[in-house]
Structure formats: C-alpha cells, structure tokens
Amino acid sequence: MSRPIVATIDTSALRHNLAIARQAAPHSRIWSVVKANAYGHGIDRVWQSLTDTDGFALLNLAEAILLREHGWEKPILLLEGFFHADELEILDRYRLTTSVHSNWQIQALAKAKLAAPLDVYLKINSGMNRLGFQPEQVNQAWHKLRSLDNVGEMTLMAHFAEGETTEGIAGPMKRIADAAQGLDCPRSLANSAATLWHRETHYDWVRPGIILYGASPSGNWQDIARCGLQPAMTLNSAIIAVQGLKTGDGVGYGARYRATGEQRIGVVACGYADGYPRHAPTGTPVWVDGVKTQTVGAISMDMITVDLTPCPQAGIGSQVELWGNNVKIDEVASAAGTVGYELMCALAPRVPVQLR
Ligand SMILES: *Cc1c(COP(=O)(O)O)cnc(C)c1O
C-alpha cells in the first residue's frame, strides 16, 4: 500500500466554473488564466476541460508551447510579455499575443524580423505600480506600436490591485479612462474579482483565474458562496495512526497543543512537504470520516494531527479531506494567514494527482 494522500482534479467543476465566468460577463470574451501550471492543477491536465474559453493567458513560454503542441490553435496571451528580445522568434513561431509594458519591448518589436505581425496588449499601470505605462505615457506608446509593421491587433490592458471593492475599482478605472482618451481600442481589464463583481470593467476580454478553480478572489469563501462555483481540487488522505491522550499530554513538535482531558487524536498522512500550510494553527478545519473537525498541534513535514472528539467512529484508515467540497481551500488558507491561490499553487510534486 502506498501513502494514502492524493489530489483529485474535478474536470467537470472546471467546465462548470468557466460557464459561471461566462454568465458573469456574457458580452466579453474570456482569457482563462492558466499561469503557474494552472494554479497548481497541472496545465496539461486541465486545459482540455477549458476549451470553451476564447483564449488562454499565462506567462511561461514552456506552458504556451505545451498548449500549441497539444493542438490549441486559438489565442494565447503572455501576461508579462517577453523577457528578452530573442524570445520574439518563439512568439512569432507559436503565434503568441504579447503584453507590452516597457519601452524596451517596443524597441525590440521594432527591430525584430517576424514572419507575421504579433497581436499586442499594451499594459497600463492603473495604480498598482507593478507593470505598465503611466496613463500619460500610454498615448505615445500606443502610436509608436501602431506604426510598426510587426504589430497586429492592439488591445489596452490593465490589472486591479483591489478588485473586490467598488472603491478599489474606481481610482484605477479613472486612470484607465485617462490613458485611453482618444484611442479607439478594445480593452481587457477584469480579473476574477472584477469579472464577478464589477460589470463596468468587463469590456472586450475578461481574465478570470482563481474562480475557474472554484476559490475566492477575496480570500473569503463566503464572498463566493452564492456564485455556484465548485472546487476543482480536492486533497484527500487518511488516518494512519490514533493516539489516546490524557490531560496535559502534548502533541507534535514543540507540544504546541496539550490535551485538557482524555482525547483521541488521529495522525493524517499529509504535511507541509505535501503543500499543507505549515502556519495552519490548532483549530484549522479538516474533514474526517464525514465530520468537520480541526487540527491540533504543529504541522509536520509529513503528518498532521487532528481531533477525533467529534468523530468517535473514526480510526486507522478513515478518509480525510484536507480541502475540497467539505472544507473550502479558502477556509484552510485564511486559518493559516494566506489565500487559496497560494495553497493550490503549492501542491507538492510528490502528491499523486488523479482526474475525475
Ligand atoms: C493572475 C492574473 C489574472 C487572474 O487573476 P485572478 O485573481 O486569479 O482572477 C488576471 N490578469 C493578470 C494580469 C494576472 O496576472
């Protein structure tokens, strides 16, 4: 028998979540964001469940090439564009749409020898101050690009730092409007949060990521509780040992939990080397043998310990869900002071993955 941990990717949930994104932005085309190996789900595993999309957005050339080699012929957007001028040859060969966020990229496009023009997403710095041109620089960058034979269709692109709130959208929308003044152009602005909650941001293409995987862009799963999204990833394991504690007995490294009475605890084959967050404190929710209970003590590399008080029937071999339909990945993440994004991206390579 092998170690009982397994991650299951629900392909119908991916399909369903994409349909929900479409319902939320019915007049826009969709870039399904599959960067970071499809948020840890495995781009080669999930892309075929998302082929109702209009395009895939990512940032790693190897992932773009993989999609082309698997036969995806529709658009692929490089969210951060090219990192070196010599990559333009690959963008040309694989027909990749590129973001342009800096002047050196415009110069590189001007000099490149391409077989055909490349479609370009000109990135506006909407106030987040990561990538993009300041609003007042956009018009000039736009016209410079427009004059190049190497540039095909052009779209304005921006990203929101606080897409959850109306106030978080208002300032950036103003900067984007300033930047776009006098330009007759398609726009792509909305991440998951803006796709769900801010119609005025939708325009021509939306770019949902996290909601395709069924988790919350705000980090609070209650924010998406009524959207009908389904978790795409379930992480399961099983109890491999049981201990009976007496008052004062410590559990795990540092004895960070001590029993306050007689207590049964279960040892689960899952630890931080599997991607479970090491900072999850005592009290982090976990599903054991059909019942919601909680972790006790420190998270180890290969094991966690859970309270069996609410599930006296549970024992060695009982099924455990670390996250999935019964315990939301966002609940585990927020207990550990992080977001669902990080947990799914951090699923460790040693965890076997199956498709359902
Ligand atoms: C990651 C990313 C997205 C998707 O963000 P979510 O919050 O996962 O929807 C959209 N646009 C850009 C530029 C991104 O980097």
Describe this structure in words.
This protein is of the alpha/beta class and 356 residues long. It has two domains: 11-220, Alanine racemase (TIM Barrel, Alpha-Beta Barrel); 233-355, Lyase, Ornithine Decarboxylase, Chain A, domain 1 (Beta Barrel), CATH 2.40.37. It has helices spanning 11-24, 35-39, 43-46, 61-69, 88-94, 103-111, 135-146, 166-180, 192-197, 329-335, 340-345; strands at residues 6-9, 29-33, 55-58, 76-78, 97-100, 118-123, 151-157, 187-188, 205-206, 233-245, 250-251, 257-258, 263-268, 285-288, 291-294, 304-307, 319-323, 353-355. The strands form three sheets. Strands 1, 10, 13, 14, 15, 16, 17 and 18 form an eight-stranded mixed β-sheet that branches. Helix 7 crosses helix 8 (166-180). It is elongated, with a radius of gyration of 23 Å. It starts with 5 loop residues before the first strand and ends with a strand. 46% of the residues are buried. The model has no long low-confidence stretch (mean pLDDT 97). The site of pyridoxal-5'-phosphate has 11 residues, from loops.
Quantity of strands, as a count? 18
Helices, by number, come to 11
Ligands (ions, cofactors included)? pyridoxal-5'-phosphate
DSSP strand (E) fraction?
15-25%
Structural class of the secondary structure composition? alpha/beta
Overall domain count: 2
- Provide the CATH top-level class of the largest domain: Alpha Beta
Low-confidence stretches: none
The whole-angstrom Rg is 23 Å
Q: Average pLDDT value? A: 97
Topology-level CATH name of the largest domain: TIM Barrel
The description of the largest β-sheet is: 8 strands, mixed
Order of helices and strands: EHEHHEHEHEHEHEHEHEEEEEEEEEHHE
Cα separation of the termini: 21 Å
Tell me the name of the CATH homologous superfamily of the largest domain: Alanine racemase
Percent helix, as a range, is 25-40%
Looking at how many chains there are and whether they match, the oligomeric state comes to: single chain
